[in-house]
Each structure stands twice: as C-alpha cells, then as structure tokens.
Amino acid sequence: MISLATPESRQRLALTLLWLTPALWSVNYLVARSAPGVVEPHMLALGRWSLAGFILSLIARSELWRLRRSILQLGWQYLALGTLGMLVCGAWVYQGAKTTSAMNIALIYAASPVLIALGAVLWLGERFSWRQGLGVALALTGVCHVVVKGQWMSLAQVQWTVGDGWMVLAMISWAGYALLQKKWASPLSATARLAAICMGGVLVLLPFAVWEWLQADTPPWSAQASFLVLLAGLLPGVGAYWAYGFCQKVLGASRVATSLYLSPLYGGLAAWLVLGESMGFHHVIGAGLILPGIFLASQQAQR
Questions:
Q1: How far is CA 270 from each of CA 22, 25, 98, 266, rounded to the nearest angstrom?
Q2: Can you give the pLDDT at residue 205?
Q3: What is the CA radius of gyration of the chain?
Q4: CA–CA dist 164, 100 (Å, integer)
Q5: Which pLDDT does position 86 carry in this prediction?
Q6: Quick one: CA dihedral 122, 128, 134, 137, positive or negative?
C-alpha cells in the first residue's frame, strides 16, 4: 500500500500519475469512435458519470456525509464544474466525434494545455520558468508532428466540420474546468470532490439524456452500449479524472496541463493495438519531442 502521509510521497505519486492519466483518457477515443449508432452522446455521458459517481461516492461516503453542509453551500460550484467537465467535455465530445476526424480532434485538443498554462500564470498567479516554457514548446511541436503525420503541409488541407465546433467548445471548457478546480479551494479530498462534481454533472445531463431517449431514431439499449458505458465510466471516468484532480492539487494546474500532450501519442498507440491502425515513423519522432517536453514542463519552477 502506498503511503500518502508525506508531501514527498504525494509528489512521487502525482509525478507517476502524470504519465498514466493520458493513457486512461485515450480509452475515450475508442469509446467515442464506437458509440455512433450504438448509444446517443448524452445517454453515454450520463451512464458514464452515474457509474463513476456511484463508485466514488461509495468510497468517500463518510467524508461526503460529514461535509454535506459545505457541499450543499457550494452546490453551484459542483453544478458549474459538472457542466464543464461532464456535459461539455463528455457528451459534446461524443457528439463531435460523429462528424469530425481523429486528426482534427487531436489538433484542437492540443491547444487546451496552452490555455490552461496561460490561465494558471495570468489568473492563478502560478510561476512558469523558462524550462517549463521550453517543455511546452517541445511537447506542442511533438503533438503537431503526430497529428499531421509528419507532413506539415497537410495543415492547409484540414477539412473543418460541424463536429470541430463541438470540439473547440470542449477544448475551451476543459481549460475552464481545470482552472476553476484550482481557483475554487475545496475542503474535500480528490475522491470526494470528484464524487460531488459527478453529482452535479448527472443533474445537468439528465434532461438531455431523457430527451434523447424519447426520440424515435434512438437505438435500443444493447449489451454493447452497456459495455461502452462501463468502459468509459471506469477508465477515462473514475481513473483519469481522479488522477488528474489529484495531480493538479499536488503539482499545480500549469504543470499538469502539459501531460495532456501525451493524449494524441497514447491515442495513436491505442488505435494501433486495438483498431489495427498503422504506426508510422512520425509517432516515433513525435514521442522524441513529447516525452522530454513533458519532463521539462513538469519540473517545479525555481523561486
């Protein structure tokens, strides 16, 4: 059992999770690509966060009950975070995946850590050293190299769709979600806080999911839909969001944001292993830029 009693042990765990969290999130790419025709976006998001919220609430039940008054007083914050993190960054991502390509999704989301890092410096007053800035630049270059498959001229050939608009909104929303979590101090642990945010997200998602369920063209519920909900709820749901919240609390918003640059790389690996998509030399070059970039950007700013 890992002890989290000391700041050093929490720091070590957070630095480890920094590399694992994007791998958990990459599972959501597979879920999003498998969902059309099987389960509607808001229904999938509602199932995902209902499951995640139930598990987290069960784990943190004593803390949630003990601090119930504080949770109710700050209920508007959990509704706001649930809207940003579970509705916009959940259901709207699944909606956008219906009409946009994986390349466009990765390219748009690559801007999210930049917004978070800038917001953390300008709004939260976090320090950002030249070494961290170099890490961000290296990682962003690596991401772009991966998503354009090493063919930089293809940037001019990107075809934008309605789905890209959903992804832009999700990208901005994620930056807001990450920054507000850091801005709004909470007495709750990472587990209990995410459970409370899930409650807010479920309340916001519920009317949209009911509306989808009542539509004539909604596909009937199936075993595949249940599997997608289970997969999304456990890995990119409970696992990734809890790890991200813990890392942000320990390391700071700007340092943790750069770990999102690993998502396109991990997503490519997942597509290669699970979907049989080809692995190119551009992934190797991208990894050679992304990995040291993450290392530099995650270092503590010197005072």
A1: 11, 11, 19, 6
A2: 98
A3: 19
A4: 6
A5: 95
A6: negative
Give how far Cα 49 sits from Cα of 93, 134, 139, Å. Answer: 14, 36, 30
Count how many Cα atoms sit within 13 Å of the Cα of residue 219 in the half-sphere of its side chain: 15
CA distance linking residue 301 with residue 129, whole number of Å: 5
Q: CB 58: neighbour CB atoms within 10 A?
A: 10
Contacts for 244-248: CB closer than 8 Å, 24+ residues apart: 244/21, 244/178, 245/181, 245/190, 245/193, 245/194, 246/13, 246/14, 246/17, 246/190, 247/14, 247/17, 247/18, 247/21, 248/178, 248/181, 248/182
10 Å CB burial of residue 234 (0-12, 13-18, 19+) is middle
Which helix (H) or strand (E) element contains residue 235?
none
- DSSP SS3 for 161: coil
At residue 216, what are phi and psi to the nearest 5 degrees?
A: -65, -30
* Cα 92 from Cα 111, distance rounded (Å): 17
φ, ψ for residue 150, nearest 5 deg: 75, 0
221 and 87 Cβ atoms separated by less than 8 Å: no
Nearest residue to 82 (alpha-carbon basis) of 1, 182, 179, 201: 201
The token duo for 22 is 């994007």
For residues 177, 73, 200, 53, the Cα torsion angle rounded to the nearest 10 degrees is 100
**Tokens at 177, concatenated:** 């979600």
Q: Which residues of the chain carry a pLDDT beneath 50?
A: 1, 303
What is the enclosing helix (H) or strand (E) of 99? none
Q: Rounded to the nearest 5°, which phi and psi values hold at 298?
A: -85, 0
* Dist CA 106 CA 144 (whole Å): 9
d(CA 46, CA 40): 10
Tokens of 250: 């320990």
